[in-house]
């Protein structure tokens, strides 16, 4: 349903700092200035649908994204729906299923400590795993250390 070209394009979400999620999109190619979009999402196998409470707007006041807080990755999959209207007419809706763990940007390792001894020309480096809401075993992480001699 809805007029061709009114559905959003380039929908993308990212989870950062463990529990914050930003989703953004571009307005449809035939969307007019009075087109308005609304984002809803729900975790896999849950009935509760959450509408965005903190929209990002373009210069015309159209919703082009959303900021969510207190997001948890307890379920791997979430469903997203963006629908809307213009001049009282419905527009094409957009639906997407996302594996949440794939969109999480991890924090850097925490409490990095370096202890170098000049006599042995050795350095010991310790750290704690990044904060994340879904990885329970620290052995799941792989690290890369780049040492620059300055």
TrEMBL record:
It comes from Urocynchramus pylzowi. This is CSF2R factor. The keyword Metal-binding does not apply. The lineage of its organism: Eukaryota, Metazoa, Chordata, Craniata, Vertebrata. Residues 10-98 form the Type I cytokine receptor cytokine-binding domain. InterPro entries: FN3_sf (IPR036116), Ig-like_fold (IPR013783), Short_hematopoietin_rcpt_2_CS (IPR003532), TypeI_recpt_CBD (IPR015321). It comes from the Eukaryota. It is a single-pass type I membrane protein. PANTHER family: CYTOKINE RECEPTOR, INTERLEUKIN 5 RECEPTOR SUBUNIT ALPHA. Its main location: membrane. GO terms for molecular function: cytokine receptor activity. It holds the Pfam family IL6Ra-bind. Keywords: Glycoprotein, Membrane, Receptor, Signal, Transmembrane, Transmembrane helix. It is found in: Membrane. GO terms for cellular component: external side of plasma membrane.
